[in-house]
Amino acid sequence: MAERRVCVVTFILLLSTFVNSKVFTRCQLTRELLKNHFHQKTFLSNWVCLIEQESDRNTSAHIVKTPRKQYYGLFQIGSEWCKEGKKGGKCDIACESLLDDDIRDDCACAYKIFENEGFKYWTKWETRCKGERLPDIEKCPDWQHPPRASPERMKRTLNRQRRRATLKLQVYKKNLIVYKK
């Protein structure tokens, strides 16, 4: 009876998250990590490697080892860090929230795990990332300068810079004409 209940709950979890799941590209993932406070660039490639090895960049990844030991989401966070159906665990979040495409809570919990246990918490990082060649994320457009402003704000800033440059050029030309006389 208990096994059947676990199967039904797992099936419902998988079915409900299938609609809201996302598989990131490497650059999309890098951008999302930068937006979610993973600014230490020395570790960013390690995080990308970890996620690629643990979940293949899929937000709905869910592994059931035993009814009491399950792993959720991009980072494959263990069930001791969350609680099924309601907030709880060491990260005080619902396990289901680790399976949707909003990765803010996933990132916060993963960072908490990292602060407590380091990368060694994730066995696939230990075996497949540590000391290995890490993913090349430097080619991603947001690697050097993550976007800080909305496109509209960037447009206004560029227009303001153009106007200032035009005014400076006009003043320069006017002074040049006066100087020639």
UniProtKB/TrEMBL annotation:
Residues 1-21 form the signal peptide. Residues 91-109 form the Glycosyl hydrolases family 22 (GH22) domain. Pfam families: Lys. Its EC number is 3.2.1.17. It catalyses: Hydrolysis of (1->4)-beta-linkages between N-acetylmuramic acid and N-acetyl-D-glucosamine residues in a peptidoglycan and between N-acetyl-D-glucosamine residues in chitodextrins. It comes from the Eukaryota. One of its GO terms (molecular function) is lysozyme activity. GO terms for biological process: defense response to bacterium; killing of cells of another organism. CDD domains: LYZ_C_invert. The keyword Signal applies. It is an enzyme of class 3 (hydrolase). Keywords: Antimicrobial, Bacteriolytic enzyme, Disulfide bond, Glycosidase, Hydrolase, Signal. Belongs to the glycosyl hydrolase 22 family. PANTHER family: LYSOZYME C. This is Lysozyme. The lineage of its organism: Eukaryota, Metazoa, Ecdysozoa, Arthropoda, Hexapoda.
